[in-house]
Amino acid sequence: MKVTLESSDGQVFTVDKEVAELSVIIKEMLVIEQANQDHPIPLLNVGAVELAKVIEYCEHHRNDPTIDDDEDYDSRKKPIEMDDWDKQFTIVNKEMMFELILAANSMQVKPLLHLGCRYAADIVKRMSPTEIRDLFQIDDDFTPEEQDKIEWEKQWTKL
Amino acid sequence: MIRSPFHIPELVEEIGAYLEQEDLARCARVCKSWHEGLIPLLYRNVRYDDHSRNMKSFWNTTQRYSRHIRSFTVSANFFPKVEELLGPECRYVTALALGPQDFVDQPLECHARLRSFVTHNPSIRTLQIDLRRHLSSSFFQEDNILRYIPALTNLAILDDRYPYSAGPKSNGAFEAILECGSQLESLTYQVFWGGSSDSLNNRGLNQEDDSKTIQTWPRLTSLTISGYEGYREIEFVKRCPNLKQLKAFFKKPNCFKVLHQMAQHYLSGHPSRLEHLEIMHLQGQQTKAALEELLRVCARPHAGLKTFRIHSSCMYETTFKTLLTYHANSLETLAAIGSKWANPFDLCLLFSMCPRLKSFEGVVDGCQLWFQDLVHFPWVCNDLRTLRLTICQNDSSFTKYQAVSPRNTADEHQRVVSTQRQFWRKLGMLKNLELLDILMITRDPSLKKMLSIVHEDLDHICGLKRLREIRILPGEDFMSNDVKEELQLRRPGLCIHYV
After folding, report:
1. Domain containing A14: what range?
2. Residue B183 pLDDT > 90, yes or no?
3. How far apart are CA B468 and CA B488, in angstroms?
């Protein structure tokens, strides 16, 4: 069975239902709107370029077993072996990857979200707070008293 | 303003799951919202050991966030006053690890504190007790701590025989496990350096009447036991008909009873759920028979063992054939560890019978690498990722081979050359191969020559797109320098080790 998806800029994609269902949001929508499947499902936060890429990912991983999110929480820190396809898939520029993470998040495509977050984590590894603030244009909004308090968090680096 | 996941608090938490403590600590100081999101992750796993125990300011801060602690490790010679150290908020721990040190300072006091800690943290599911550096055997004798952990489902107790005079320190542990076994999902009880077989530990068990119905532990699916003879550990196996994973490591050969006991469950009509079987240090005919019986009776029509690991000295030809007869379709990992072998594997049989095999480690006969028999058998093993071969030379089959082949030198040379091609050509069919590791225990120079890579083989090797590493030992004549250069040019990322 086919499902049609519409990106925020109005482009329509037709995919197999089981592919689309890798997105938790779409899966839930399909349950609710069972009767009304002639209209494309609107994805208001996802542009056509990102949606195409997300669909490409879902097509490739359509047969993967689902993973339980909480069960493997502590195993996430371990490095994993990415397969060739995923490696190839993540060779995009930083901005594109960020857009993909946002898309995966709004569509709730869990495996892609994990893949992206692992990528994002690698970016901030070994960076100082100042460097991170500069890179992402984040304001340091700690008050001086809070600043004093959070100095203690430095101790972890000594453990 | 950049649009990035780093600006969305919930995604910062997701990303934090992939960061180590040091990075988390740095990131927590970026801004308020990162701080809020990452602090729970930073204080998720806390360790109290000889290094961290005196860092007063660290514990002061930790106290503020102690409600986030999920895993707590105490590796010191006393149990701390947690109430004082972490405050009353530390109530949501789900995993506790103790040891390996003994509570030498005020043991009674320590036990009381430990008891109070576990009663304040009723969600503890996972407990590991490492008794390996304990000097006394009082840990379980003082008090059965397991009684105070109602949600316990994963238990691991590690022990050894040091100091030798004292024997294992887990006296009382066995009885404690029997008491709480029905609530466990996984159990590890390992005594390293051999376990105890003294009469003290067997007392009471021999009188147990087999006809008396014992309570089974239906929830327990993963059991790891190791020790000397396995007399007591048999009691665990007796109670666990639903095991998915059984790992048994024993010194004495008479622990074939463990295997026999497992087989009894299936013989008495219990459906098998066994997927992972790992057996080490078992030797002797009785073991062989018991193992083969277990392999037969634990087979199911559409599912069977996925993982089978064994010491290579107990992998007999009949064991191998029994394994393949009943589990060839489900087998994903097969490993015979060690270089002493009872019998080399038949590689052709393996590759033509196991469609799901992903990893193989074992001793094979040098002649196998001719892959002669594969002419007659279809090659089904297309998903192999890891191949670790120890190549021996089985004299009898070697002479057999030589007897049918002409022995003049020109033909001999021809044979070596064609075999060479055959080996790498066949290997080139393992499209998903990632690691190839070959150890040769042979003096025969022709065998070494056979494995060496020449220009014509490079196409086969370069066709293996996923190959990351080749190890050949000893590999003096493995390849000439220009072949190596060409290979490195064509496959820049590939690691090649040969000495």
Report:
1. 2-149
2. yes
3. 12
CB contact under 8 A, A155 and B55: yes
Q: Which residue of B has its CA nearest to A129?
A: B30
| A79 reaches B (C-beta below 8 A) | no
Distant-in-sequence, close-in-space partners of A63: CB < 8 Å, separation ≥ 6: none
Q: Which residues pair with B95 in a beta bridge?
A: B71, B126
Does residue A158 lie in a domain region?
no
Which own/partner contact pairs does A140-148 have at CB distance under 8 Å and 24+ positions apart? A140/B30, A140/B31, A141/B31, A141/B32, A142/B29, A142/B31, A142/B32, A142/B35, A146/B32
A155 vs B: CB within 8 A: yes
* pLDDT at res. B103: 84
pLDDT confidence of residue B482: 86
* Local confidence band at B411 (pLDDT 50, 70, 90 cut-offs): low
pLDDT in tens, A96-153: 999 999 999 999 999 999 999 999 999 999 899 899 999 888 888 888 888 877 766 6
Alpha-carbon distance of B24 to B215, in angstroms, equals 47
User: Does the pLDDT value for residue B268 go beyond 80?
Assistant: yes
Q: Is the pLDDT of residue B394 over 60?
A: no
Complex ipTM: 0.89
Report the residue count for chain A.
159
The pTM for the full model equals 0.82
Cβ atoms of B282 and B315 closer than 8 Å:
no
Of residues A40 and B219, the one with the higher pLDDT is: B219
* Residues in a beta bridge with B497: B471
Residue B371 has pLDDT above 70, yes or no: no
Name the one residue in this structure whose structure tokens are 């996430």: A76
- Which pLDDT tens digit goes with each residue over B13-68? 999 999 988 899 889 989 999 999 999 999 999 999 988 888 888 898 889 899 99
Domain locations in chain B? 1-42, 44-196
Q: Backbone dihedral region of A149: left (phi > 0), alpha (psi from -120 to 50 degrees) or beta?
A: alpha
Total domains in the fold of chain A:
1
The CATH label, of 1.20.1050, 3.90.1200, 3.80.10, 1.20.120, for the domain at B44-196 is 3.80.10
Name the packing angle between helices A110-124 and A48-60 (round to 10°).
110
- Nearest CA to B127 among B136, B139, B118? B118
**Of A95, A136, A157, which is closest to B6 when you measure between CB atoms?**
A136
CATH number, domain containing residue A20: 3.30.710.10
